[in-house]
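Assemble and predict.
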Amino acid sequence: MKTMQPRPLSTLSLIVLHEARILVRDRTLLLVCCVLTLMVGYGLFVGLAQATLRDRMVAQVLKHEQETQTANSGTLQSVLAGQTALIPFSNPANPAAMAGTLSGRYATMPNAPLAALAIGQSDMMPNYYRITYLSKVQFMYDTEIENPWNLLSGHFDLAFVIVFVLPLLVTTLGYNLLSAEREHGTLRMLCSQPLSIATLMTGKVVVRMLALLAIVIPVPLVVLLLIRPEARGAEQLVLMLSWSALVAAYCLFWFAVAALVNTVGRSSSTNALIMMALWTIFVLILPVTMNLAVGLVSPAPSRTELASRTRVATAESLREYEDLYSADYRYASDPEALLVKNERIEVPSRMRAFFLAKQKVDEQIEPLLKRFDQQLLQQQKLVDRLSLLSPAMLVNEALTSIAGTDSRRFLAFKDQTEAFHKRWRQYFSPRIQESRAMTVRDLSSLPRWHWVEMPASEIRWSIWWRAMLMLALASVLGGLALARSSRGSIE
Amino acid sequence: MFAIIAAKDLRVLTRDGRLLWAGGLVVMLMLVALAAGWNRQVQLNSERSAGQALDYDAWLHQRHRHPHDAAEQGMHVFKPEPSLAVFDPGIGPFVGSTVWLQAHRQSEVKFRPAQDATGLQRFGELSPAWLLQVLLPLLIIVIGFNSVSDERERGTLRQLISLGATARSLLFGKAAALASCVGILIAPVGLAIAVLIVARLPAGERVDVVYRIAWLAAGYGLYLGFFVFLTLAVSALARSSRAALVLLLGFWVATMLIAPRTASEATNLLYPTPSRLDFDDQLAHDMADAGRKAWSTHFGARTQWDPSVPLSKWGAALKVDDEAGYGALDENFGRLWDTFERQQLAQVWIGLVAPVVALRGYSMGLAGTDFSQHRDFSTAAEAQRRKIQNIVSEDLIEHADRLGNAHFTYKAGPELWASVPQFKYELPSVSFALAHHWASLALLAVMFCLSVALAQYALTRPLMR
């Protein structure tokens, strides 16, 4: 026997169907979807261009490294065979020259497989460093070249489309969920049906959200899978899944906000104003205010102080190795002095002085440099906590860490580079001190750079945690909206 | 009639909650931004001028040493913060402030504050300029979108006209009301801070800063005026208040959010920025080329630092080598910086659609925090480096080259250190900024006039539709 009680699910699907028809005829949905598709496409294009540029740079650097190595071992062989005239500064048998000007070693950080999803800090932070015996202050502060005006404007990447634009499109579709029905007088009619307002609102949200998510989630993922083979691994698929969950949760959050605003019972215009105000606060004002607050609470050490300390350390090292610096220099007139004898070579004392002085400077500056990095990590921790205040911050952080373009990864790269730089020096230090000449075998056994990727489990956890938090927030708001809707007035 | 309309509108607006809440928020943020900026500037400036003085002092009191080693220690120079950076930090967070002037290396301005900040920095910098550029237009839209449409919807527009209110007095009355709302919010804070900034300056710099403030006020006046009249025009043209609101918010989003980023991406395609790697490769290549040429003409040597050049010519060789590099440095850095400036110049035209882009460039130009003024500083720092280098080389030729193989045993004393002048950098004057940014100001003026014309047209259209 059939009951007269309407089944909520079938009512819901009925509403979804009706809404879909209306939205298609209304053309708003079509327009919004077109705009979204265009923006997602363009954002992806920008991200891909940036990722390709970085890839190309790493490839170029590695090629350069290979070439230098071949050239060095060629020169060394002919130097040892006595075929090449000796140039004091570019004699590969001389360990000080190999450690410095002749070094073709680079520390590189490859793109993460999903780098195209967010540009993050990658337009500012370098993804390679040239390793020589130079002091850290001399080579670790090179930045990527980019017009500062463009850095200020920001890039039009996918993360921007999601964090900034998606909520606005949600607002466009959802600011008048109920208020329009009320203003058209159809809400009364609907209420006379065996239908709860909660079901009505759910149906409306479902249609709109599915339409947006059907574009914003599959398009980038499919494109990435098609054109970037490295995105096809199992681990990357899990990352993509978490990315989708995050985007869906963020979208749901804004629809929940729209629904909640609609249950207050104000006019459509007021709703639009409230939504806009919330967007401005969450997406514009809170992040910039928090940026200011982070800088105030946990300020970076002074760069001016670093400069002064560098000066003092340099002066001290100059004094310490004064004798080496000002020793006689006879190699120009007597190139024979640079010949390798019994696997020994006379390292020109000035070159030895350079090597030792830079090492000394770094030893003295090290604690201060460490403080900069620690402070940045401290700030990052603070941001993690503060990002609970604004979903935009939360999602932005997670998106960049999925793409591997967040400050944490760049900091890890810097850290590893510093360790490698130390190893590089340690390799040469005894050779320079003991005047041991470089052999052909030495050239192939120079310290090698290996980038150790950040632990995937840590990243995964931080992303899922954020996605779940976002979802929980959205559900609370959504639940509140549904609960309120049953008590709302229809006038 | 004009005054009555203005007074009535103003009363309505002040009684409305929108102005109170939104305006209160803007004023509060403005105060926070000013306090933070002020604090930062005082700290930075005192730190930098002290740092620079100490640095020069250390230079003067070096012990006897080889001049080339002294150039190795070099000199640090710091970019002074222009006093109006409190108002608009411009590209400040994304360019460095410190140059280490050393021998043989082009002085690059290092230590960008953004490097010491988290990814949050990329959301933007809370500054008074940002508030005026982004949030105030939104405020104008929010309080003004229904100022005409509401009168029409309530039927009071007809009554007003029957009382003899002309379109002109209606337009300017409403505009005056909106403008005075904005004025009430920003004028007191603005005036107070302007007086404070000017009072703190040494008398010599005051006039320049006062001019800068006046020009800034003109630029922002035109910009906010544009939004006032645009809001009125759309309010009068749109079918309903709701339509007016949606249209205006759409325009705001498109111009504030979408346009600046699209503009940067587009100009990047038009005038591509080289990657660091390409730039360095090109520079190294050009330097080596120029070096080789110079060495072969001066010493008949095939390579730089050729063993055939005796140590008794190293001072001279150093000079030749350095001077050969100047051309390549100038050309490469010049090209890069020209690219940056061209990119920005192209974006001024985007100002025809999104006035905020034109205003942003103009504002940071007048505040002294734009790229052209950063470039001016970089050039001055590089000139100082070359000065040190030349003095050192001359001294080496004169004294060390005579010593032959004992070249590096030569030690110069305090007289040589004292012959290097202290680095004194004066910020460019207001005319420098105006010469770079007059086009943006003209464009803002044109946009303002267009918006007035549009509003006038909108209000003179027949009421019956």
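The longest strand of chain B covers residues 75-78.
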